[in-house]
Amino acid sequence: MIKKENYIFILLAVYLLLSSEVSFSQSMNIEPKGSLTVDIGIPTNEQNRAFDNVLEGLFNGGVGYQYNLYKGLTVGGGLKYSFFINDRFALNQTIGTGAMHIPAVYAKVGYEKFTTDRFSFNFGVRGGYSSMIMVNDSNSVHIGGAYFKESFFVEPQMELLLTSDKGEPNGFSLVLGYAVYFSEFNPEFISRDSFQGLLPEDNIGFTRFFSLGFGFRHYFGMY
Questions:
Q1: Is the pTM of this model over 0.90?
Q2: Could you tell me the end-to-end alpha-carbon distance of the chain, in angstroms, rounded to an integer?
Q3: Which pLDDT score, from 0 to 100, does residue 7 have?
């Protein structure tokens, strides 16, 4: 498995490769009317400590639409989903197999600027309502099924995009995000009174993680 640190370097290398093909001339007056977006990433650097100890991130992504409100200021909305699997060796192997699913609905506000006829940067914040669904052997034994907890969340994102060709409506991007769920990952998620081998303060703090990955965007009314 690729180490997370190496994964960061791979993403940066891909970005440098893409950006080397871009001629950074004067800023372009390109203001699409809207766009359909898809992003796929891998969660990393999970917090709090209990969350990082018990779960391993596999997927964080979403699909949405954003509308150009005025000179690059955008608003939109969509759906997202995050997925984590249990670390079977965590907590002395006492929680068994399982996973956490986090489906969510969100609204988004952002700003996009084309610096050339092919390259743009996009900064936005998506936030909304999610359901944290914890499925594992411990929950099956103690509560007869999955553990559910609802939570609001916010996720700032930075996107660096390159269209497939000059004037083309399709683009591919490097996406970096930081998701914060306003809920603590505590022993209730595994139907226990405490996390074996961890201190009580290890489950203090909002559930949060970085996300590194790629995106696809289709523009409408580009010119």
A1: no
A2: 43
A3: 59
